[in-house]
Specification:
49% helix; alpha/beta; 5 domains; five-stranded mixed beta sheet; single chain; six-stranded mixed beta sheet; Heat Shock Protein 90; Four Helix Bundle (Hemerythrin (Met), subunit A); 748 residues
């Protein structure tokens, strides 16, 4: 706050701000004193913090806070002078005093009542701790001392609510205004970068100017000796002189523009960096309060635990830091309740009585990694396996084949819990589900690992900021689109020969599995995809069964983009999450990968993946005849497709009569081969519709059916079929001979 104009804040506001900072110092110092009650540096820092708060409260006539701070100071001074040895009961009471100070400074009083009842309880607890100090000192470490352990706290809602209220009063700019400022800084950066392409075009113009000067010199040489005093000589001399002046002027202006470009870009970069950094907060700012919460929760469960914060200085977007509060609370609560053993169990296992939970933050590859690890008993994989089976999540045959990593993934399912009973702390199965949900919202990843007897580790991989994302820029229908790198599995150039048709849908082999293909044109409604390239640019999105290969027109490279939210009046735009500006000032839409995958799944399940298949076979159409195979039997469909494809025909399949009717109306075919008995629309009706259509009636239709009675054959031919083949007499040569009779060989 140094250097700021504080005149707009009341004295009570200033006291709350000081209370926020001093409370953090008191809490961390008291937790350290619990482990070493005579540490002089921590005793001194806590005493000074209490003394400062007492003085500040006295200045603003806040008598309740004065009395609390004075009692805390007296206790700490007695400990400094050796008249008192701090016990856990003292630490409990002093920590309670920190909470009471926040209540005393609240306006209106918290809970609708004054702080007096809580002050009385605090003073009583402190007096009892001091009177029972000798007995407490003699109690075995780890036993409850003096008074009952505190009620288990909700790790996600302890203290930040109070400190945040004070912080909000001192912030000079709202988060919304900060977002607008960051957006403007990003636009300023983009505008500044537009100068460089403009300067490059002027350099090209300068070269043309030089070529013009050379052409004039060549013209003068071609004219031979010219009297400089005659009209032609003077005109040429004047042209050359003006060209030279123009070139000098051009060079000077280019140098100025280059200087302006460097300064503008540097200024815009610094403005953007500073604005972005103003959104960043040290990781420790948002998690420091968990130290006390872990300690109190452990005591309530009869355990001993402390929290170690590693990498607290790592910068993280304040929005992400705020969203992390509840997930980290869940993970820390699980670590204390599920992970750490009781002191007796730890001693029996050769461990220290006190368990350690490590909360670590570090930057890695442009991302923030947050790790919650404990030195407890680890996750019992066999118990997880039993819980998975008990909840009927997989079959008994399958559960035995699941590996450790696969089993640990079940921990994140909604409603899944290892506890058989529900308590105030856990057992409802919502904690880890909430963790994964939050991480996915910010485009992050969650992993878990465990070592029996040594502990478990949860790792969250998050973006450093929600305001800037790294993307792959692609071109779709001559427009740029951005795909967040966090949602991309791989990019590749796919040869057309590697595309296979499975159930009539285009796929390609990716590793050990088949991945479905779909064009970005089709899914975004941008018309037909390009069909003349030998290789297709493909972006693999998603993982496992939800993977799809998205075909785009062109890769434009990676970009770091400033996210600009869409106008709220647009509501949710299908498949799009936000917008941004690229270097030349052009707008670009940022694709919502999860929404896109859902759209791809809907299109695939409806049997409408046609655009890609046309694109994939366009180069062969001039030389290969096209056959549509319509049959509801996968076996028959694939058999006929393979026979026809082996003989050079281009084949597309449809799963029933309705599907076949939709396909034959949308694409040109040389022949239709259909079954009779099919759902939705049978083969007879399909033949009838084709022969009634003026545009399609010339397309030959062959019926291939199990029905071999003469009346069945007559019924098919009466409907307009050109050939009737029974499956009983069906074999490769029969089918091919019939096809050749109807439409000729595959080529030609």
């Amino acid at each position: 706050m140094s250097g700021e104009d504080l005149s707009q804040f009341s004295m009570l506001d200033l006291f709350r701000a000081e209370l926020d900072s001093q409370s953090l110092a008191l809490t961390s110092g008291l937790l350290a004193l619990e482990r070493d009650p005579v540490a002089p540096d921590h005793l001194e820092s806590c005493m000074r913090a209490a003394h400062s708060l007492k003085g500040a409260a006295r200045i603003i006539d806040l008598d309740p806070a004065v009395r609390v701070a004075h009692a805390m100071e007296e206790c700490l001074v007695a400990a400094q002078h050796g008249r008192l040895r701090l016990t856990r009961d003292h630490i409990d009471a002093l920590l309670k005093g920190v909470d009471v100070l926040a209540v005393a400074a609240s306006e209106p009083p918290a809970g609708g009542v004054g702080a007096e009842p809580q002050i009385a309880l605090f003073l009583q607890a402190l007096e009892q701790a001091s009177n029972g100090g000798a007995a407490a000192d003699s109690a075995p470490s780890g036993e409850p001392q003096g008074q009952r352990a505190p009620t288990p706290p909700a790790l996600s809602v302890l203290e930040p609510a109070q400190s945040a209220a004070g912080s909000d009063r001192m912030v000079r700019i709202t988060a919304q205004a900060m977002n607008r400022l960051l957006g403007l800084a990003g636009e300023s950066l983009m505008e500044a970068r537009r100068l460089r392409p403009f300067a490059d075009r002027l350099v090209r113009q300068k070269r043309r100017h030089r070529d013009l000067a050379k052409a004039v010199d060549g013209l003068r040489a071609a004219l031979g000796p010219i009297d400089p005093d005659d009209r032609t000589g003077r005109a040429l001399a004047e042209v050359q002189d003006k060209l030279a002046q123009s070139e000098d002027f051009f060079i000077e202006r280019l140098a100025e523009l280059d200087s302006i470009d460097r300064r503008a870009t540097d200024l815009a970069n610094r403005l953007y960096t500073e604005t972005l950094s103003s959104r960043m907060r040290p990781f420790e700012d948002g998690v420091r309060h968990f130290s006390r919460a872990v300690r109190d929760l452990a005591r309530s469960l009869g355990k001993e635990a402390r929290l170690e914060i590693v990498g607290g200085g790592a910068g993280i977007d304040r929005d992400i830091l705020d969203q992390l509060d509840a997930p980290l609370g869940h993970l820390l609560r699980n670590a204390v309740d599920h992970g750490l053993e009781t002191p007796e169990e730890r001693v029996a296992a050769g461990k220290p009585r006190e368990g350690v939970i490590r909360l670590e933050a570090r930057h890695h590859a442009g991302l923030l990694q947050v790790i919650v690890a404990d030195d407890g008993q680890g996750v019992d994989v066999e118990r997880v396996r039993a819980a998975v089976l008990a909840n009927s999540l997989v079959t008994e045959e399958t559960v035995g084949d699941l590996g450790e990593a696969e089993l640990l993934e079940f921990l994140f399912l909604p409603g899944f819990s290892m506890k058989t009973t529900v308590s105030d702390v856990s057992g409802r199965g919502v904690g880890l589900d909430a963790v994964q949900s939050m991480v996915k919202q910010v485009r992050g990843l969650t992993t878990v690992s465990s070592t029996p007897g040594e502990g478990a580790q949860f790792q969250l991989q998050l973006p450093l900021t929600l305001s800037v994302i790294r993307t792959l820029l692609v071109e779709i229908a001559d427009e740029p689109y951005a795909l967040p790198l966090a949602g991309i599995t791989r990019t590749l150039k796919l040869p057309r020969a590697d595309i296979e048709l499975l159930e009539g849908r285009p796929h390609f082999r990716f590793g050990d599995r088949q991945v479905g293909l779909i064009t970005a044109h089709e899914i975004l409604g941008r018309g037909e995809a390009r069909s003349d390239a030998a290789e297709l640019p493909v972006v693999v999105l998603g993982d496992g069964e939800t993977s799809y290969g998205l075909i785009v027109d062109r890769f434009l490279g990676e970009r770091e983009l400033v996210v600009r939210p869409l106008d709220p009046r647009l509501a949710k735009v299908k498949d799009i999450s936000a917008a941004a500006l690229i270097e030349d000032g052009s707008p670009v839409l940022i694709i919502d990968v999860e929404d896109l995958l859902r759209s791809a799944e809907k299109i695939a399940s409806s049997g409408r993946l046609r655009t890609l298949q046309r694109a994939a076979t366009a180069t062969d159409r001039a030389r290969r005849k096209r056959v549509l195979v319509v049959d509801d039997s996968l076996t028959v469909r694939e058999l006929e497709r393979k026979i026809l494809d082996h003989h050079g025909y281009e084949v597309e399949v449809a799963v029933d009569g309705m599907d076949g009717w939709n396909v034959v109306r949308s694409e040109p075919f040389d022949l239709v081969v259909t079954d009779i008995d099919m759902p939705r629309m049978d083969g007879i009706e399909l033949v009838t519709l084709i022969k009634r259509d003026a545009r399609l009636r010339s397309v030959p239709v062959m019926i291939v059916s199990y029905k071999d009675r003469e009346e069945d054959r007559r019924r098919g031919l009466d409907a307009g079929a050109d050939y009737y083949l029974t499956k009983g007499s069906f074999h490769d040569d029969t089918l091919i001979h019939a096809v050749v009779d109807l439409v000729g060989p595959a080529s030609g």
